[in-house]
């Protein structure tokens, strides 16, 4: 073995060591690794040159290069650990909330954005002559489904992924999947005329993503009176939309199916992000779906003993969290549940 050969291997390792010490981030380390042991590295070039040497010489130098490569790889692994640890430390520092921090002056808490949105929505409807009603979050199958014209095993049940509770007979008690059961409770309590909105928490077995959370809020509306028509429904929705979102946001109704209304419609509003021009949030349509609505199905009036020859009505239901998301341009709904004070403080 000549000292010149050893020198080449040692030099490569030394150079690698210096190069690696300069890497402060995992990204930098990745490019250094490619440079040091990748296809275009000095090591790889030296390895390729072995082919031109006599066999003995080739074996000897091959061994040296192999050793050098193992050493460099070990150095990279070692550096990766150090850099990763430092990166995580920096990230933790940046993300840290100092809960002991004393701020000048009293800092008062405030209502959560969802609660505030709910209050504002209620105010708009109260201004239009509606009363506010509430119902339980734990419901029976009868209120949540059957009285709303969704019989057991009806395929429409697939529209709601339900959390059932282990109380009584299987699948008889559940976490309400929408606020529509409160329609039934209101009509049981009070004979028409009824003009009511019913806000509250709902639950669905949904996987959380940017537009869905398994615990969410809806506001339901119900009007039952003499001579109520679809025009009353459309007018109410449009009045609400401009009152809550502003004069340049409008509503439109598109045919849909819900078991408890006939005819039924999907309620859409002008996309509040692009104001109707078309953007990613609204899939370039200019419209955003808020909920559903329609004329109360005679079967629902029948379930609470009302004569559908005498009374007609309309109903609607939409997401409160979705309204907050649209009005405040919140890209990911999951942040509403995170309780991160940096978000809570902003709104
Ligand atoms: N309950 C429906 C849902 O959560 C929304 C809905 C649609 C409510 C139509 C209504 C209605 O009152 O008429 O999917």
Briefly characterize the structure.
It contains 12 helices and 9 strands. The chain has 347 residues and is an alpha+beta fold. The structure holds 3,4-dihydroxyphenylalanine.
Description:
By secondary structure, the protein is of the alpha+beta class. The protein has two domains: 3-95; 113-346, Bira Bifunctional Protein, Domain 2 (BirA Bifunctional Protein, domain 2, 2-Layer Sandwich). It contains twelve helices and nine strands. The protein has helices spanning 3-21, 26-37, 42-49, 55-95, 113-127, 141-144, 181-189, 230-245, 298-303, 320-328, 335-338, 341-344, and strands spanning 131-132, 138-140, 173-175, 194-203, 215-225, 251-258, 261-270, 287-296, 312-319. It has a seven-stranded mixed beta sheet, with helices on both faces. A two-stranded antiparallel ribbon has the order 2-3. β6 and β7 form a beta hairpin. It is elongated and about 105 Å long. The mean pLDDT is 92.
Q: Helical residue percent?
A: 40-55%
Structural class: alpha+beta
Q: Low-confidence parts, pLDDT < 50 over ≥5 residues? A: none
What order do the strands of the largest sheet run in, or round the barrel if closed? Answer: 1-4-5-9-8-7-6
What is the domain tally? 2
What is the overall pLDDT average? 92
Proportion of strand residues: 15-25%
C-alpha geometry: elongated
Ligands in the structure? 3,4-dihydroxyphenylalanine
Second-tier CATH architecture of the largest domain: 2-Layer Sandwich
Task: Please identify which CATH superfamily of the largest domain we are dealing with.
Answer: Bira Bifunctional Protein, Domain 2
Q: Distance N terminus to C terminus? A: 73 Å
Order of helices and strands: HHHHHEEHEHEEHEEEHEHHH
CATH topology of the largest domain: BirA Bifunctional Protein, domain 2
Radius of gyration: 33 Å
CATH structural class of the largest domain: Alpha Beta
Number of strands: 9
- The total count of helices amounts to 12
């Amino acid at each position: 073995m000549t000292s010149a050969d050893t020198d080449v291997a040692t030099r490569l390792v030394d150079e690698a060591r210096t190069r690696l010490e300069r890497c402060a981030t995992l990204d930098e380390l990745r490019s250094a690794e490619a440079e040091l042991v990748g296809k275009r590295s000095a090591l790889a070039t030296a390895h390729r040159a072995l082919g031109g040497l006599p066999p003995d010489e080739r074996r000897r130098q091959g061994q040296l290069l192999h050793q050098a490569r193992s050493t460099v790889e070990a150095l990279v692994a070692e550096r990766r650990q150090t850099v990763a640890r430092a990166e995580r430390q920096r990230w933790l520092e940046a993300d840290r909330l100092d809960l002991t921090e004393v701020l000048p002056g009293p800092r008062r808490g405030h209502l959560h954005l969802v609660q505030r949105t709910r209050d504002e929505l209620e105010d708009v409807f109260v201004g239009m002559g509606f009363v506010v009603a509430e119902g339980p979050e734990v419901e029976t199958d009868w209120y949540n489904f059957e009285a709303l014209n969704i019989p057991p095993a009806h395929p429409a049940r697939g529209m709601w992924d339900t959390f059932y509770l282990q109380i009584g007979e299987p699948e008889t008690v559940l976490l309400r999947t929408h606020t529509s059961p409160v329609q039934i409770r209101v009509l049981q309590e009070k004979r028409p005329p009824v003009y009511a909105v019913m806000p509250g928490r709902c639950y669905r077995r949904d996987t959380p993503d940017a537009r869905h959370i398994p615990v969410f809020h809806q506001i339901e509306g119900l009007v039952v009176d003499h001579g109520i028509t679809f025009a009353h429904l459309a007018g109410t929705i449009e009045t609400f939309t401009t009152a809550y979102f502003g004069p340049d946001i409008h509503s439109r109704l598109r045919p849909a199916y819900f078991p408890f209304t006939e005819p039924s419609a999907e309620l859409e509003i002008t996309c509040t992000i692009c104001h109707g021009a078309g953007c990613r949030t609204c899939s370039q349509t200019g419209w955003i779906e808020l909920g559903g609505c329609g004329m109360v199905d005679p079967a629902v009036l029948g379930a609470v003993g009302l004569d559908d020859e005498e009374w007609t009505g309309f109903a609607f239901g939409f997401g409160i969290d979705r309204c907050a998301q649209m009005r405040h341009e919140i890209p990911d709904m999951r942040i509403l549940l995170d309780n991160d004070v940096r978000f809570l403080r902003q709104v």
